[in-house]
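FAQ: What does a ligand-bound record look like?

Like this one, built around heme C:
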Amino acid sequence: MTIFRRDVMLVGAGTVVLGAALAAGIAMLGAYNVAADSPHTLIVRDLIGYVRERSVEVRAASIFVPPLGDPRMIAAGASHYEAMCTGCHLAPGMEENEMRPGMNPKPPVLASLGRGNPREQFWIIKHGIKMTGMPAWGVTHTDGEIWNIVAFLQKMPSLSPRQYRVLTASAADHHPHKDHDMDHMDMSH
Ligand code: HEC
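The answer part, i.e. the structure of the complex:
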């Protein structure tokens, strides 16, 4: 190891120790505001963003993606999405609701994010994301059901509001547990 590299590492380690001491001090004083209506400081926001991004990338990297083009998968996924996800993520043609603006982080409108990486979507839907409100659906759903949702997510950005309505209406007819609509939150009013 060159002297230069060692110096860089020492400075790095020192910064980490100081940073940890500072963070502990801030925590003990109750100085960091955990209120959802107070935005994160930029450094905390960037740090959390980076940790989340890497955490998901690393864990999703080895996931095998099955074929996602089957219309039956997409229809089943649409029905789950409509029942379980729209309160937080909306869907084509859906208006803003009264919950999302108060959430921190605010759930992204998935239809306008583009198709996204199916591997990472599967991982996030199955395991959720700590301290964000994004639930781990794998606790109550099979991998197959989650892949159906991913198949639908790949389709959603290209759907018009009308196509979305038609798809969810027809899917609901042959979806084994339509009661989902009742169990899950209904945030529209
Ligand atoms: C209670 C609110 C809530 C519900 C319900 C919910 N999510 Fe989320 N979801 C979130 C939040 C908040 C985030 C953003 C997390 C973050 O910023 O780290 C998120 C993130 C995501 C992401 C990652 C988006 C990106 O940045 O690329 C995906 C994919 C996702 N959710 C899919 C779903 C699906 C599919 C469902 C239904 C099965 C669902 N979510 C239900 C709150 C929710």
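Follow-up question: can I read anything off the structure? Yes, for example: Residues 181-189 have pLDDT under 50 and may be disordered.
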